[in-house]
Design brief:
Layout lengths: L7 E3 L7 E3 L6 E8 L5 E7 L12 E10 L12 E7 L4 E10 L2 E2 L2 E2 L9 E5 L5 E8 L6 E3 L4 E9 L6 H5 L6 E3 L6 E12 L5 E7 L6 E4 L2 E7 L2 E6 L12 E3 L3
Parallel strand pairs: 1-3, 2-4, 3-5, 4-6, 5-7, 6-10, 7-11, 10-12, 11-13, 12-14, 13-15, 14-16, 15-17, 15-18, 16-19
Antiparallel strand pairs: 8-9, 18-20
Length: about 250
């Protein structure tokens, strides 16, 4: 499936915009997935669960973007989905994707968790790889990785601007979460940024994983952009705080 000029495809019946069956070798490129005023579970659903995929004929999604809000005015109507992209199958590659909950729209700045979406990306399949992934402003964890042997190369996440300590900091949401049961996962160059614009919010970790030695993050960092509060640690209680007095923190390994 090839989009010419990045056409916008929108769900209007509560179903995903695209559902990929449990098949090999699917290619999707050049599309913008958009949430509508009819709530949906996800915008792109790859597989129905439990399908191992094929290492010799993987699925690919190139240059695909998703947005929740932006062209709308929340005072007139809001848009929502639970997850922007859900990958249930194994051996899928996501290359150059930006999954964005809007921080601004046609009326101005988005406030008060309007246009809600919980997660940008949820990976349930094994052997999934991402290159150049950006996930921003979702109201819970930006990425949730449940599958084994995942790999991510360059990851950028910006936490939401319009949350509170009660609805974001206290629950312990992060920019990148690897399920504590996962035994093997690798990431290179993952960065999590914060701009808590509207309230003072303290987040304990930018990245959270279990304790398996097979879960390895190479050169992760956190960055304070502006605003209030801080990210206290980079990953799993390691790394220094980033706040108005200290803009960036790395964990070198």
């Amino acid at each position: 499936m090839l989009g010419i000029g990045f056409p916008t495809v929108e769900t209007n019946n509560g179903q995903p915009v695209i559902i990929v069956s449990n098949v090999d070798g699917v290619r999707i490129t050049g599309l913008l997935f958009q949430a509508s005023s009819v709530p949906s579970t996800t915008l792109l659903q790859w597989g129905t669960g439990g399908y191992a995929g094929n290492a010799n004929n993987p699925g690919f999604a190139y240059d695909v973007f998703a947005r929740v809000g932006g062209p709308n005015n929340p005072a007139q109507y809001q848009v929502s989905t639970n997850v922007q992209v859900t990958i249930n199958s194994g051996h899928v590659v996501l290359d150059n994707a930006w999954l964005w909950r809007a921080d601004h729209d046609i009326s101005g700045i988005v406030y008060n968790s309007n246009n809600p979406v919980f997660n940008g990306l949820v990976v349930n399949g094994n052997d999934v790889t991402t290159y150049g992934l950006a996930v921003e402003h979702n109201l819970h964890d930006q990425v949730v990785w449940n599958g084994e042997r995942g790999q991510s190369y360059f990851y950028q996440a910006e936490l939401p601007y319009d949350v509170t300590q009660a609805n974001f900091g206290n629950p312990g949401y992060v920019g990148y979460r690897v399920n504590s049961n996962v035994q093997n996962h690798q990431s290179w160059g993952a960065g999590v940024y914060c701009f808590f614009r509207d309230n003072v919010v303290y987040v304990n970790d930018g990245i959270a994983t279990g304790s398996s030695s097979g879960v390895v993050f190479t050169s992760p960092f956190t960055k304070f952009l502006n605003g209030n509060g801080q990210i206290t640690h980079v990953i799993n209680n390691k790394g220094s705080p980033v706040n108005s007095g200290s803009g960036i923190s790395y964990v070198c390994n």
